[in-house]
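Give me the fold.
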Amino acid sequence: MELKLLNDKGQSSSNVAAPDTIFGRDYNEALIHQVVVAYQANARSGNRKQKDREEVHHTTKKPWRQKGTGRARAGMSSSPIWRGGGRIFPNSPDENFSHKVNKKMYRAGLCSILSQLAREDRLSVIENLVIDAPKTKILAQKLKGMGLDSVLVITDDLNDNLLLASRNLPNVLICEPRHADPVSLVFFKKVLITKPALAKIEEMLA
């Protein structure tokens, strides 16, 4: 598998050899969907709380007598069928949204995503991405000169200059190879990998 090697102007200068086991796999839509959904689900936290009929603050007095009124029987106003009553199956903070995905499936899903990005010409390699100062303007101009507006940059050298310069750019994310997640790989229009990071990705997913 050959990946494009870009220069500082975003032009393809040459190609870089990449293993077919990572960048040449078939597109497995079902596996990618499962990996992406599991990643998003595992990021959720149980922060919803609802009250059941024991927790709502209502009087326990019987609203009206049992018989003779012509209305339905009622024991207390905290009943779930009453407005303002408790929920039958309330949400609790300890709710678990996690999905289990095996390591082998997760790695295979990442390889399938990377392979599809390479086929769609959305994945490229660069020698290195370095800026002299932690200025958002400098990084924005550099990426604009390369023709990149929505980009995920995977770099092995995540220094303070890159980290601070990219924080205020909404369509730019810079991360290390171990933090490259399936959602970001799918979301951004272009993925840019530095040469040292490419070697690490090959080592991780081999």
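Residues 152 and 176 are 10 Å apart (CA to CA).
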